């Protein structure tokens, strides 16, 4: 029998599983880390061991079962913390240390037969290792081994053998560091707590989170209807993040300053207007979009369009590009809001769907390439003829309908 040590961090948002935050919030990543830790501790509970120790960075919580001795981590780098964990847990029996990132491990793996071996090592697919065992503490086995690299496992094995230790190898496992790792665990080990939580989170992301992550370049996102069919105008992130193209500039030539860009995204339209010397302001509900716009030297405000905005009733033009007439899922309500924002003879420029008769107010869903899906987002897709019908209930009068091979636009002017 031996001592099993779990080296772990308290699952606090922002301190654990930061690589999961390419698709999950800090709170969600911490919840996944906690579930993984609970799964791991459950396996250790069931393993044949004399003692169970947790070497903890942070404070224990209700997730820690009875029967575990808590030892506070000490040391600066991970190599020092691992060495200290062995020293602090040693009672004369062999010790097997595991991390909190391989919840799929099995109790029998922890009941290693030490006969003929001085050390144990279990590698991970990303080049690290998920467990390390030593008969007795030896700082020489750890200090100076490069940690958190794609060759940590190889270097650790080389160090153990250089010390003349006979090393027993355990199976290679995949640890949970990235969203793809979490997806692998959920598919291959569906009954784990972390897998069940992952599946719940996969289908309940806030649309704004996925949009911000797409703008930040951490993940690829497509917009679809509830039927799964792609909505092209809402999935062209490359065009949104690029400078204004020829069609954008042609549309903006209709604008009369000052211009308000509703749903400005990363700011290509506001920036193009500023380069023309036209005063412009972008508004967006995405903090990331506003940050990207201001980083380009343009002006933007983090605010929903239905909340009070600067210059109400005095804007020369209001712009709804990239299908943003769909914001909120009610085109009539949005057109009325635009009429409130422009001056008495002001212009509203709307990019509509190329299908003139399309009038679809079905919510949309944002999806990542790893399968994460947002909750339904109220949205509308409207063609020119449908938009004209909606405009009849407002004080906006259509003045021009024009298009390019792949995009369509309608301009409306406010009338008394």
Automatic annotation (TrEMBL):
<dbReference type="InterPro" id="IPR029044">
    <property type="entry name" value="Nucleotide-diphossugar_trans"/>
</dbReference>
<keyword id="KW-0808">Transferase</keyword>
<dbReference type="Pfam" id="PF09837">
    <property type="entry name" value="DUF2064"/>
</dbReference>
<dbReference type="GO" id="GO:0016740">
    <property type="term" value="F:transferase activity"/>
</dbReference>
<dbReference type="InterPro" id="IPR029063">
    <property type="entry name" value="SAM-dependent_MTases_sf"/>
</dbReference>
<dbReference type="InterPro" id="IPR018641">
    <property type="entry name" value="Trfase_1_rSAM/seldom-assoc"/>
</dbReference>
<dbReference type="Pfam" id="PF13489">
    <property type="entry name" value="Methyltransf_23"/>
</dbReference>
<protein>
    <submittedName>
        <fullName>Glycosyltransferase A (GT-A) superfamily protein (DUF2064 family)</fullName>
    </submittedName>
</protein>
């Amino acid at each position: 029998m031996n001592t099993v040590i779990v080296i772990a961090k308290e699952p606090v948002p922002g301190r654990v599983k930061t690589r999961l935050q390419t698709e999950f919030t800090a709170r969600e990543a911490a919840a996944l880390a906690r579930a993984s830790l609970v799964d791991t501790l459950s396996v250790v509970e069931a393993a044949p061991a004399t003692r169970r120790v947790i070497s903890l960075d942070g404070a224990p919580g209700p997730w820690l079962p009875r029967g575990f001795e808590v030892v506070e981590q000490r040391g600066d780098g991970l190599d020092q913390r691992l060495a200290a964990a062995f020293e602090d847990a040693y009672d004369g029996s062999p010790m097997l240390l595991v991390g909190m990132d391989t919840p799929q491990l099995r109790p029998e793996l922890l009941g290693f037969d030490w006969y003929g071996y001085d050390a144990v090592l279990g590698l991970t697919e990303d080049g690290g290792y998920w467990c390390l065992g030593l008969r007795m503490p030896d700082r020489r086995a750890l200090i100076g081994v490069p940690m958190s690299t794609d060759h940590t496992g190889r270097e650790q094995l080389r160090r153990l053998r250089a010390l003349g230790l006979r090393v027993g190898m355990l199976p290679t496992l995949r640890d949970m560091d990235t969203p793809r790792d979490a997806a692998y665990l959920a598919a291959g080990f569906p009954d784990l707590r972390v897998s069940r939580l992952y599946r719940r989170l996969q289908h309940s992301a806030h649309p704004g989170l996925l949009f911000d992550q797409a703008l930040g370049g951490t993940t690829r996102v497509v917009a679809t209807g509830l039927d799964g069919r792609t909505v092209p105008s809402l999935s062209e992130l490359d065009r949104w993040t690029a400078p204004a193209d020829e069609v954008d500039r042609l549309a903006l030539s209709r604008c009369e300053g000052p211009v308000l860009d509703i749903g400005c995204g990363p700011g290509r339209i506001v920036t193009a207007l500023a380069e023309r010397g036209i005063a412009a302001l972008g508004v967006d509900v995405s903090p990331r979009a506003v940050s990207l716009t201001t980083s380009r030297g343009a002006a933007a405000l983090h605010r929903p369009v239905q909340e009070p905005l600067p210059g109400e009733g005095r804007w020369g033009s209001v712009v709804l590009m990239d299908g943003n007439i769909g914001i909120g899922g009610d085109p009539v309500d949005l057109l009325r809001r635009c009429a409130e924002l422009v001056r008495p003879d002001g212009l509203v420029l709307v990019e509509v769907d190329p299908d003139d008769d399309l009038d679809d107010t079905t919510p949309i869903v944002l999806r990542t390439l790893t399968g994460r899906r947002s909750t339904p987002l109220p949205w509308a897709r409207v063609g020119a003829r449908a938009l004209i019908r909606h405009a009849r209930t407002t004080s906006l009068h259509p003045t021009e309908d024009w298009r390019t091979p792949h995009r369509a636009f309608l301009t409306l002017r406010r009338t008394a």
